[in-house]
Amino acid sequence: MDDWIDRNYDYYEILTPEMKNASLQLQGPCYPVIFPSVNVYWSCQYIARASNASLRHWKQMGGVDIKEDIVVDKSIHSFINSRSSVLKRYMADIGKAWPVLIVCGGLLPLFLSVVWLLMIRYFVAAMPWITVAFFNILIITVTVFYYLKAGWIGNDAISPIIGDHDPYIHVFGRELNHLRAAAILMTFVMVLSILTSIAIVRRILMGTSVLKVAAKVIGEVQALIIFPVIPYSILAIFYMVWISAALHLFSSGQVVQNNCNTNCCAYDLLSEKVNCDHCCGYSIRYTPHIAVAIFFHLFGCYWATKFFIACSSTVIAGSVASYYWTRGETSSEVPVLPVFDSMKRLIRYSLGSVALGSLIVSFVESIRFILESFRRKLKVTETTPDSWFGKMVYHTSQGCLRCVEWTIKSVNRNAYIMIAITGKSFCRSSAIATELIMNNILRLVRLNVIGDVILFLGKLFVSLSSAVFGFLVLDTHKYSSGHNKLSSPLLPVLVCWTLGYVVATLFFAVVEMSIDTLILSFCQDSEEHEGTAQFAPLLLMETLNEQNDMQRLTQ
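Request: output the structure for the sequence above.
Response:
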């Protein structure tokens, strides 16, 4: 092997005249390197069209014409657009765009989330309007970017070709179809978002009064506004390790020999002669163990994300509960920094309950995702039940599954609050939370719905900002030419969007959990004192009275 590396062998000159003529007819034993390859995370990936320089040399040697309808060309194009090849290119895009993921998926949403919390603290009356306006602007911007890269606006469509000088630069692969599907989906989301924003304009004032209570808590409870930096740092380290392991998993496999016959020959380096046995080469294939490992890796990432977010929510709930049960005032019984005291209680008493709750949510959502995948396959193959009873059962099961998922999510979040308030186990806290919700359902709905909608739009505002900046960076010369060129910006932008949403969820949980904890504490306080809350802060009582007055006016 060392001699082979040091010396430039010309195997073609060793062949007999008959073998040379057969090779020029694409019948072996030597074959031209017509289709160039590029490094896709430590494995060779063919480019979509033949190299002009290689074709020129091939014709000078007297080789047969390379046409679009020959078997070799068809097999190469089939390989290029196979699902495994597209998946490898997507994973290679993640490997190339890792600086963008760190900046646009990690640091930018951190900055925007902190700014949003500070503005909630000091400009609470204007923030709902600002959030709704910027959200609609950003979602329109992201949709336009998708249309640009899909080639429907302008002339900047994506292509897997590396060199801009190649005349086949406008030949596309599966990535373009995926991007066009994403553009159509974003169009529907954009229209729905604009209509929803118009519908909630008259309700924003109601949500503003709820956010005032959360702003008061953020100002009173020390260290609450900077606490999400701790789970953010833990999640950042976890994601870096997870992505590195994922890239190694997707680039691994078992080297197996291809099925072949004795009708081909190749030059053997060891025997220094042409050998016609086992000459058809090797390929890398995923084994069942690797497929299971990839599935376990994806599920582990989802569970770990839910677990860290649940821990953050529990700590915030414990801090706000300390504020509520001291009537919003400083007490000798409450520590100076309730956030760190709540963290200590979580680690010492409630870590197992939080892990169990996050596992249940992850498991149910994974099952729903698998069943949804089966449903789409059945829909594609048109095997949906034809009878009215079959259709009724089919759609009812889907609706029930979504209701179960939503119920578990809702109960879980409130269960974390009751774990922080009462210190009981997950199952017992879930029962207490469910009972409080059922006894005070009208009050909870009236207070929570609009506030949750505004917070959800705020999360989308942060994550969409990450996606827009990711688009802008990936559209620069560095990522659109040369070996750093991405096959498609779709997956890196989606990763930036997802990471931005996770970071925003960590920080916005401060406001979200503050509102929910205050309301559930108020409900429990009322239950314990025969309908009259004894520990509710003054601002919360004023807000509840305002809501009651507005409800009477509406009636």
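Residues 338-380 form the longest helix (43 residues).
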